[in-house]
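We now fix the convention by which a protein and its fold are recorded. Here is one such record, which you should read through line by line:

>
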Amino acid sequence: MANPNGEQPILIGVIGGSGLYHMDNLHFIKHVNPETPWGHPSAPITIAALPSGVQVAFLARHGSGHAISPSVVPARANIAALKSLGVRAILAFSAVGSLREEISPGSFVLPTQIIDRTKGIRPASFFEGLSVVAHAAFGDPFSHKLVQWLEGRVRKVLEEDGKGVKLFTDKTIVCMEGPQFSTRAESIMYRQWGGDLINMSVLPEAKLAREAEISYALIATATDYDAWRPHSDAVTAAEVLKTLQANADTSRLVAAAILEGLHSTVSDDGGNHGSVSGDGEDLFLEEVGSMKFSIMPRSVKQKPEDRKRLAGRRSMRCLCMCYRVSAAGTRPLLTNTDVVLIGLRYANDIVHI
């Protein structure tokens, strides 16, 4: 369904990590480079069509040619730019180190938990530095229903590919600051904490997706064993590169096989926002509305310019949902009929834009 401007909404965003800088089997349409209040995304976003004609957005997390280090990825601009296109679900890919013997290089993993070992260098909230205070719920950092939806489908693709790639689920990923790899002591400590994987990219990306009420899941691809194995060499960039390309090829295969179904699942069915076609569940019950009670009550110290910054421009719809009021109440739409700050649109007694 086109929005009032005649544009087809882009419901699915794919974020590619190390080695995954483009998608195959998609028809290129155009590049877009939205300007957000937090700057431009890592690289121009590729809008491409699936065989059915529906459009998806692809963003290279580290920029064209992998020119951006994990600590300085413009994550706020990346998520805000995808939100401005209408994206409701993000499928992110990332190369990871394995902290478990059974998760061998080449394995795919759908993690469900995160341990944050970043060091405060990366802006981790859209509200950071502003006079509007928000506390997003993040107990389950990945979208549970989206991960469940992905599990069977990703496993099926890997089995049909016939290369013996294994899929692991319900794992914990440690996000470290980098750009250096772990010391052996750190790697052993992460295992003792319950970590199964380690990378440098899942945060603040997952936190920002939650603040933007976008469903988010990570497909992690193991490239190495980090540094915890006592009789093995510690991870090096050269070792990572050995499996990076094979993992990227398999990631493209997985994405090509599941994006069509994912778009069908997250698209409107008869005009009902977020309803599911065929699965009987709503992937967005978890995320849409999750910021409802996250904003602190209105204060005289909330600056109008900060609220305006978060709301974005009407033409951009950055971090905003648009709405219309009917007898059934307020229903979020992918239109720019009106603009309200995500999280503040629920309670008239909190704030008015």
About this structure: The CA atoms of residues 183 and 227 lie 7 Å apart. The first strand starts at residue 12 and ends at 16.
